[in-house]
Structure formats: C-alpha cells, structure tokens
Specification:
The chain is α/β, with parallel strands linked by helices. The chain has a single domain, classed as Formyl transferase, N-terminal domain (Rossmann fold), CATH 3.40.50.170. The chain is built from 7 helices and 7 strands; from the N terminus they run E-H-E-H-E-H-E-H-E-H-E-E-H-H. It has a 7-stranded mixed beta sheet, covered by helices on one side. Helix 1 packs parallel to helix 2, helix 1 runs parallel beside helix 6 and helix 5 crosses helix 6. It is globular, with a radius of gyration of 17 Å. Bound molecules: 5-O-phosphono-beta-D-ribofuranosylamine. The site of 5-O-phosphono-beta-D-ribofuranosylamine (GRF) has 14 residues, from helix 1, strand 5 and helix 6.
Length: 205
C-alpha cells in the first residue's frame, strides 16, 4: 500500500477529509504521517482522532534551512512516504523535497489558479482578493507542487457560483465545501496513477 504524508499548518479540515476518504476506502493508500509546522494546531488533533502519526517541524528548532530540509527528508524516508499532500501548509516546499518526490506532491488552493495565487495569497487574503475583483465565480484548484508558489500543473479544479452579496467569509465557506469534495478525488487520482502527466506537460510553454 502506498503511503501519503499530509503537511498542514492550521485547523486541518482538508486533512480530515483525506482521513475520512481513507477510512471509507475511497483512497487505496495509507495516510501514514502528518507533518505539522507548529504544535497546538487543529491538524494534530485530527491526526490523533484518525490514528495518524504526527511530527512537528519548526524552522526555529534547526540552525539552518539545510539542516531543517535534511531532517524533514529523513523523516519522510523513515516513514517510507510515497506521496505528499499539502493541506494548508504555509511554507515553501524546499527544492530537495520537490526533487525527491517528482510529480508526487499536490497542493490545494482556495481559488481558481492561475488567478489569485502566489506569495501572500493564502487564507482570507485569497477570498478578499476574489471579493474585491467582483468576480461571480470562485473555486478550488489542486495542482502539482514545484519550487514556486501555486505554479505547478493543475490536476483538478472546480467552480462555485458567487452572489453579489457574498462577503469574503461566505466565499470562503462556499469554496471550502468544494475543496473538501475535490481534494480526496485528486489524491485518489494521484495514488492510483490516473494522471496523464504527458498530456498536461505538453501544454506548458
Ligand atoms: C484551505 O483553504 C486550503 O485551500 C488552503 O489552506 C486552507 C486550509 O484549511 N491551502 P484547512 O486547514 O484544511 O481547514
């Protein structure tokens, strides 16, 4: 059985949906590890509830980013991790990890990429920007992770209709519902080798 590590920095609601999908046998892989960027986050509680091991990786515990990256990679190897799903992970994934898991890391973003992505575009900032744009659709995107924020190839995306009166908070709620639907579906595609990488890669300039 392939093993998945989920990386999270917050409440962990997307992580929980992945755990539920595994429990219901919708995903033929084991969610084997949570990497948390801080102690005391909701995601750690989710890991406890679903019997998933968790490890905290805080930059301040290491004397350099190389040391941090090496320790993180060693931990992923220790758990024999095959795939990584970022679920509300705020740090950039270091190139050493991207290189060690080619086309095997996915992220969920709470908007329709390539719009409303990039550095600083996370959490409430994204929904605020969508609201400000006046667009009447938003959505969620699952993409492969490379060394830049929110730039990897899109593997799954779904829209949600917005109303004129929706506040950024309402937009966030609508989008989260879509995230919870498509993230388990995207992870299933990845672990079951259902992604046509040649097709998506042939479109890149
Ligand atoms: C989600 O909106 C996700 O798209 C973004 O961070 C948020 C994490 O929420 N990357 P949760 O911790 O999964 O509840």
């Amino acid at each position: 059985m392939k093993k998945v590590a989920v990386f999270a920095s917050g409440r962990g609601s997307n992580f929980e949906q992945l755990c539920i999908a595994q429990k219901n046998k919708k995903i033929s892989a084991q969610i084997a590890l949570l990497i948390a960027s801080k102690p005391d986050i909701g995601a750690i509680e989710v890991a406890q509830n679903y019997g998933v091991s968790s490890r905290v990786f805080q930059g301040k515990a290491y004397s350099s980013s190389d040391e941090y990256n090496d320790a993180l990679l060693a931990c992923l190897n220790e758990y024999s991790i095959d795939f990584i799903a970022l679920a509300g992970w705020l740090k950039l994934i270091p190139p050493t990890i991207v290189e060690a898991f080619p086309d095997r890391i996915i992220n969920i973003h709470p908007a329709l990429l390539p719009m409303f992505g990039g550095k600083g575009m996370y959490g409430a900032h994204v929904h605020q920007a969508v609201w400000q744009s006046g667009m009447l659709v938003s959505g969620a995107t699952v993409h492969l992770v490379d060394a830049e924020y929110d730039r990897g190839m899109i593997i799954k995306q779904e829209c949600v209709a917005l109303d004129f009166n929706d506040t950024p908070e309402i937009i966030a709620k609508k989008v989260l519902k879509v995230e919870h639907k498509i993230y388990p579906e995207a992870l299933k595609m990845l672990v079951e080798n259902k992604i046509d990488f040649n097709n998506i890669k042939s479109r890149k300039k």
